Amino acid sequence: MRYILFFSLLIFQSTMTNVLRERLAKGPLVCAEGYLFEMERRGYLKAGGFVPEVILEHPEVVKQLHYDFVHAGSDVVLAFTYYAHREKLRLIGREEDLEKINRTALRIARNVARDTKTLFAGNICNTNIYNNNDKKSAEECLAMFDEQVRWAKEEGADFVVAETFSFLGEALLALNVIKKYGLPSVVTLALHKDGITRDGYTPEEACKKLEEAGVDVVGLNCMRGPDTMLPALGKIRKICKGFIAGLPVAYHTTEQAPTFFSLTDPLKRHSDDVRSFPTHLDPFVCTRYEIEQFTKKAYAMGIRYLGVCCGAGPHHIRAMANALNKKVAASKYNEDMSQHYALGNKESLLKENKIFVDRL
Questions:
Q1: In sequence order, which residues have a C-beta less than 8 Å from that of residue 307 and are 6 or more positions away?
Q2: Whole-Å CA distances, 248 to 47, 232, 316, 320, 346
Q3: CB atoms within 10 A of CB 50
């Protein structure tokens, strides 16, 4: 029965149109990311290795976060398989759980997506073993991508997100595997401080090569916050003809500290005065209104696949949906300060409280 179901799924998907391109042709898509950081903040994931063991240990928490992001406005339920690859599982001595953790994450995401009538995406990412001068490392990466994409295919993913690549070469390997399995693709690069890939390409050059290789959506995610990602997105938009993705981290990055890895706290509110990454970034979190402004600017320059990566909370996703004039479940709870006991203007409010407002 298992094999009949699998081959039926392959036949079904082989006849599918490109649902990703179809949806983007109708308007922008919002994809919530940032699961690693949100799970760490909630106390279900260890910073450092950032391995999503929560999938097996507390699947109900993962399921609820998917629902929270959809409620806030995400059009995509992204399977929480970022860093659920063989190298990461090997690092913590749980390689035997590799298939189980991937299939569990995929099934949780699929069930939420089907229940909420959103898109279901598989997810692969940087392996941290790729070396552009080492053919063996490329072969190992291919094998890792292959098993994860195959499981995503078997579990019915609508498309696959391959993300956070600092090497163009590794991104191309991931794209080739996704194409092998006949799934639509989103491939995004991560830009470090010097603003080029680790194999020497500008972001626009790298994205153009990915576009020429057949990617459906190409762009940037992670590493850079809204202000330091936007200029690079503009250059990519000018050179690439297809759909572009922009998913910054939800942190204030600057020209002097363009990545969240390079941020330092001038007040030195923790013992390590070298880096704020990863657990001392709280002073740098973007407000929802900054994410709203990023969304409007990115959309105006032609970016159609939008989201927030590390640091994202549901309020950031709602802000993005608001900026795109999407009416989502969480829109019901957009702020209305007219009802505030001291700052509001409703006639029924106590006048003494309004007079007291300057003393608050």
A1: 30, 31, 32, 33, 74, 76, 221, 245, 246, 247, 317, 320
A2: 20, 11, 11, 12, 38
A3: 16
Could you give the percent of the chain with pLDDT greater than 90? 91
Q: What are phi and psi of 185, to 5 degrees?
A: -135, 140
- Which one, of 182, 291, 160, 315, lies nearest residue 229 by Cα? 291
What pLDDT does 5 receive? 42
Q: Span 190-213, mean pLDDT? A: 98
pLDDT on residue 67: 98
Contact assessment for residue 314 and residue 71, using Cβ atoms and an 8 Å cutoff: yes
CATH 3.20.180.20 fits 2-326, yes or no: no
Distance from the Cα of residue 245 to its chain's centroid:
10
Q: What is the pLDDT of residue 88?
A: 97
Give the pLDDT band (50/70/90) at residue 269.
confident
φ/ψ of residue 123, rounded to 5: -145, 125
7 pLDDT more than 60: no
pLDDT at 268: 73
pTM given for the model: 0.92
Contact 123/78 with Cβ under 8 angstroms?
yes
CA distance 305 to 218: 9
Give tens-digit pLDDT for 49-106.
999 999 999 999 999 999 999 999 999 999 999 999 999 999 999 999 999 999 999 9
- Determine the Cα angle at 217 with ends 212 and 218, to 5°: 70
pLDDT at 2 over 90: no
